[in-house]
Design brief:
FAD/NAD(P)-binding domain; six-stranded mixed sheet; globular; 2 domains; alpha/beta
């Protein structure tokens, strides 16, 4: 019996586990994750503005594993020894025959301890719950500073604006970005379209700015502007898990591991999802749900082929496109090679989320939130 360990129960890890459980081989499959549930990240910002219940975005890992006769070990991996083929946690060391690293990413505080202490990240269901709880005290915060103007920052700002509009509250939402523009490498037409929408929603955008001094509810920007009674929403970027930064393998600055054309790190270890840095046609794949799912399945398929002594298959990603959803329903994106604006990409975003979300009850909850959002 071959022992397969999967580190991480996100999109990539669960997709890999599901594929291996159905491959017909005699395997002992173990999933490691420090959390009891897997978060559906694409809809986390919607918990704030659209009122999506965070509970329906959490997939119970134990239940997933039980149905597929997979072992779930709720422990945090802190080391991997490729030579000895061991995965270590604070509790024990576990041997493997094949390993899939699919541990995803976590909020990057860039060694900024005040940001870690006082900032509100938005990278999990629990993060959304914490923010929603803080928002119930309408008098505590007047200014809402979104640090980071990438995908998550833009979505967060739009959802905060929608939340205050629905509550009839007058609050300031300010995006702070150290770069010269929002949304980094995206096309100019998309940046301009989104920026106009954000400004129409009353959101201030401050580029070439950095949050320099952070206290509990007070912060100062590099421009000298000071904001009192401020909630700092910390979304300037992500990084891979701590144990990955200790591995002697090729990585980019975020810690994403460079993989080969088969998604391998070495002969017995594969990597998938946001943790993996796959390059094809001279372009590195962006972090996206569609790639996490297909990479997880492909890595699992190549492990099965390895056990059967068959040649491995090269990973050939299919890029269906991407959408930047805005809470005012004026989203934009590029899908199947077409530039889209307005309500259509909003609908496509939700349709894809409904398709990928696990559980009929959870799907119904998203449909209900969508209908309310479109009819407001």
């Amino acid at each position: 019996m071959n022992k397969i360990i999967i580190i991480g129960a996100g999109f990539a890890g669960l997709s890999a586990a599901g594929r291996l459980a159905k491959c017909g081989l005699d395997l002992k499959i173990s999933i490691f994750d420090k959390k009891s549930h897997s978060d559906f990240l694409p809809l986390i910002p919607d918990c704030i503005g659209r009122g999506v219940n965070p509970e329906i975005l959490a997939c119970d890992i134990s239940n997933f594993c039980r149905k597929r006769k997979i072992e779930f070990i709720r422990e945090e991996v802190n080391a991997v020894d490729f030579k000895s083929k061991l995965v270590s946690t604070p509790q024990a060391a576990y041997a493997y025959d094949f390993l899939i690293i699919a541990s995803g990413t976590q909020s990057n505080f860039f060694s900024n301890q005040p940001a870690r202490q006082y900032g509100f990240p938005l990278n999990s269901v629990n993060d959304a719950k914490t923010i929603m709880k803080a928002l119930k005290d309408n008098d505590k915060f007047t200014n809402f500073i979104i640090c980071g103007a990438g995908y998550t920052g833009v979505e967060a700002a739009a959802n905060f604006s929608l939340y205050f509009k629905k509550q009839g509250l007058i609050k300031r939402v300010i995006m702070v970005e150290r770069a010269q523009t929002i949304l980094g490498p995206l096309p100019e037409w998309m940046k301009s379209y989104i920026e106009r929408n954000l400004l129409d929603m009353g959101i201030e955008i401050l580029v070439n700015s950095v949050v320099e001094n952070i206290q509990e509810d007070n912060l100062r920007l590099s421009s000298g502007r000071v904001f009192d009674h401020a909630m700092l929403v910390w979304v300037p970027g992500v990084r891979t898990a701590d144990f990955i930064h200790k591995l002697g393998v090729n990585k980019n600055p975020q810690g994403r591991i460079v993989v080969d054309e088969y998604l391998r790190i070495n002969q017995d270890c594969f990597c998938a999802g946001d943790t993996a840095l796959f390059t094809g046609n001279n372009n590195s794949l962006r972090m996206a749900v569609q790639f996490a799912i297909t990479e997880g399945e492909h890595a699992a398929g190549n492990i099965a082929r390895s056990i059967k002594n068959l040649s491995l298959k090269k990973f050939r990603p299919l890029d269906l496109g991407y959408i930047i959803p805005l809470a005012n329903n004026k989203s934009c994106g590029r899908v199947f090679g077409l530039n889209l604006r307005g309500i259509l990409p909003t609908l496509l975003h939700y349709i894809m989320c409904i398709f990928r979300l696990r559980g009929l009850t959870n799907k119904a909850g998203i449909i209900s939130s969508l209908i309310k959002g479109l009819c407001r």
